[in-house]
Amino acid sequence: MIRADIIKLYKTVHTWTGITCGFALFIAFYAGALTMFQEPIARWASPPAVGVAAVPLDDAPRLLELVAAAHPEAREEGIKLHLRGYENEPARVTWEEDESHEAGQPHGHVHWWATLKPDGSLLAKQEEPSELAEFINTIHMRIGIPEPWGSYFMGVVSLLYGVALIAGVIVLLPSLVKDFLALRVGRNLKRMWLDAHNVVGITALPFHIAMAITATALSLSHELWSLQEAVIFGGKQAILDERDNEPFRAPKPIGEAGAMMAPSQLLQRLKAQVPDFEPKVMIFKNIGDKAASVRVAGAERGYVGDTHLGGVMLSAVTGELLKDSTRPSRQDPDRRASETFYGLHSGQYEGATITWAYFFLGFSGAWLFYSGNLLWIETRRKKACKGGELPEQRRDTYWLGAGTVGVCLGCVAGLSLTIVAAKWLYGRVDDLNHWHEYIYYAVFFGSVVWAFAWGAARSAVHLLWLCAAATMAIPLTTLLAVLFPALGMWAHGSAATIGVDVVAFIGALCFAWMAVATTRRIRNGPTDSIWSIRKADGDTVPHKPAATPAE
Amino acid sequence: MLVFAALALTIAGCVYLYLASPNQKWLVQALPGRPALVAGGLLLAAGLAAWITVLRPLAGFFVTLHVAMVCLFAFPYIAALRGKGRRN
Predict the structure, then answer these.
(1) Domain segments of chain B: what residues?
(2) Measured between CB atoms, does B72 come within 8 Å of chain A?
């Protein structure tokens, strides 16, 4: 039996760590759930292009040869040969070049793609790909705060999230078995929100513990490395870094010409040497040289963290296996451990089952923090005496209610609208990738201001309708693209991109349902709450409690 | 095919565990505790074995765990939404 004063102490710790970190964690989990479909979103947002199929794999040797001859920098940096034909792969071959910069200074990259014209000559074009999916990932990782402060901030938030988890479990221990899986919907709203919060927190506890640990480590990785360097390695970490990077380093060119093996033959050689490896992209370096190599990035199924940084390197001349210590089954134990660690955070293993599981767990995490705030507000609600006047609710509950509605729904609406913008603004603005940021932040901060201006109850309805409309705009945009091709938008036919529209459609219906339920609650629910818009009207008729997701 | 079997076994195991709980809201009365818990445990173990066959031990364990977590938080919510639907 745990002493009551200890439970009280941990309850205070749980409450305040949860309240202070809840907003950031909601954004991280909601955007994180979307990143589970990072590739389908990137494919949905990518305009129609020449495509991989325009150059059959058998014609790829000529294309590679022409690119290497015309773009020496690409030859050194690496020319990517795409194998899957996804919509976000603009052509069979792509590569990056450095932007002009002073030596040793940080710099950006420009992106190129290349294909063969019908007459067999080279067509190369510089075109920046959509960075929408990366932007959503940035919101997930740093909630939009610039580096390095974003990582520091999320590192501390993740650490406090871990503290909140431990404290929450201790608080729950006395009633854990009795209340396990209970979700009691009824007149006692505090009980209901407590159950709604606890069900998600307890059943998904292993997921949350893994997230808290991995997010802390990933956010503070630079600082942890520096600490290791100072305390453990004493300046010798560079040797370890060198050892870690070696498997990715291509052999240096020797200056002798060599005949390249065709990519299709190289893939056959790969299949023969590493049968279980699923190649995604081939990255050629130093084409034309006898020491030319190709790194094949891909997955080796069955491992946690099966694709992250995994790959094998072959000689592009002989097809001989040069390096394969980065694929999961050949990684040394410390790299395997770190890849498992990363894979557990990102859900990068197995396939569709784990992608969907992480998607739902990500949303449940966002709901955990949202419901935590609702519980805090409900716990501090001043109830009306029977037949008495309505009490004035505490100001802090008004502020937290407005903040919860503004931040959480602002994030949802902002992400949906910035996804929609990928099709509407393509070709109409100069720098679409920056527009994704402008749109997200405008909607996000606009929603927060709106929530404080209108109050939690009214703004919850407005912003839920905004979320529903913005999310519904995703499939509607695709539908408009099909019906009115003159709009200049596109509708890809792959299952992955149609899946984005279908999931958005279902999501929009959920937001609309919440908006309707919230409207009912603010009009008809108990008046002694920040979630009611009815004034003190002397109404003494007992109301049936009508709890809603926005409450 | 084995993936679908593994998924079905894992979900079925969670259904039994939920229905064995005194707090379940799907049935008028919870399933008899011990037999339902044993059945749920066996189904989950079979699901785990199937996932491990499809993948590898570590990945199989984590897939089983994550599917079970989704089921166990979703079932009480599904019950609450069904109850709300009936009341309306």
Answers:
(1) 2-87
(2) yes
